[in-house]
Write a structure and sequence with these properties.
Blueprint: E1 4-7, E2 13-15, E3 29-38, E4 46-51, E5 55-57, H1 60-67, E6 73-83, E7 86-92, E8 99-103
């Protein structure tokens, strides 16, 4: 949730709800989601491409990046429906991007 404080002791699982498409899904076709997380103090932003999934449990490498943040991190979730590599619907992005902080 926006403004959430995450405890530094355990990596979280992020979940999202992309805009649902009525188009057919297949191996090269489907709902694609780009997750972009950045915050002050991070060595680099985190970029994750998700295909037909709605969650990501943060791995150790990315959790170390997030714990290094010195202020609120911002999350952007951008989705699109792709058919054989061509965007057919979208991209869709919420009007507001949630933030979170990692606390000790």
């Amino acid at each position: 949730a926006d403004g959430e404080a995450l405890a530094a002791g355990e990596a979280p699982t992020f979940t999202w709800e992309p805009r649902q498409s009525g188009l057919r899904h297949g191996r090269e076709t489907g709902e694609f989601v780009w997750i972009h997380v950045e915050g002050p103090g991070m060595d680099a932003p985190i970029d994750l491409a998700a295909i037909e999934t709605t969650s990501w449990t943060v791995d150790d490498e990315h959790w170390d990046l997030l714990r290094a943040s010195t202020g609120p991190c911002e999350v952007r979730v951008i989705s699109a429906y792709v058919d054989r590599g061509i965007v057919k619907e979208g991209p869709f992005q919420p009007s507001e991007n949630p933030t979170f902080s990692v606390t000790e």
